[in-house]
Specification:
- The chain is mostly helical.
- The chain has a single domain, classed as Arc Repressor Mutant, subunit A (Orthogonal Bundle), CATH 1.10.10.10.
- Helices cover 55% and strands 7% of the residues.
- The protein is built from six helices and three strands; from the N terminus they run ααβααββαα.
- It has a three-stranded antiparallel β-sheet.
- The protein is globular, with a radius of gyration of 20 Å.
- The termini are far apart.
């Protein structure tokens, strides 16, 4: 008879299950940190999805719609509608890809760059403030771990729209 692995307890040793469950901790940490910066975006009159697109395009030569949808945590139809609005607002433009004219790349316009410039500085200041609360954490190591987790979505999973 084969030995079975012990079943993990349904509660954390020191309390509720969700208080020691990675998925819950990541979601709650993201919500807490992003809520602070989202207030900055509201004051600037910039919607979160618009910020995500502009931040994703910052420092790039352009991205595909699919690439942006993935980076911005949006489904592609939602991303397409958002990009239509951002094109009308003069924040981004669609260009054919230099290597494959069937592919469309999204690039920031000078107006988009002007809008996002100060927000990028504020985002880095916010990040520094958050990380300063935890001086013993290696910020670069934390980012490396988060990038590793984000780079390997579970098989069969589909990214869902983030609130």
């Amino acid at each position: 008879m084969a030995a079975t692995a012990p079943v993990a307890p349904l509660r954390a040793p020191e309390g509720r299950f969700v208080d020691d469950y990675l998925l819950s901790l990541l979601a709650r940490a993201s919500h807490a940190v992003s809520a602070e910066f989202h207030a900055t975006l509201r004051r600037a009159g910039v919607q979160v999805p618009v910020w995500r697109v502009l931040a994703s395009l910052s420092g790039s030569e352009g991205e595909t719609v699919t690439g942006l949808a993935d980076a911005c945590l949006l489904q592609q139809p939602t991303m397409t509608k958002l990009l239509d609005r951002m094109v009308r607002d003069g924040l981004v433009k669609r260009l054919p890809d230099a290597r494959d004219r069937r592919v469309v790349r999204i690039q920031m316009t000078p107006r988009g760059e002007a809008l996002v410039r100060d927000l990028l500085v504020q985002a880095k200041q916010h990040e520094a403030m958050v990380l300063a609360r935890f001086p013993d954490i290696g910020a670069q190591r934390l980012k490396e771990l988060l990038r590793a987790i984000a780079a390997r979505p579970a098989r069969g999973s589909r990214r869902r729209e983030a609130a």
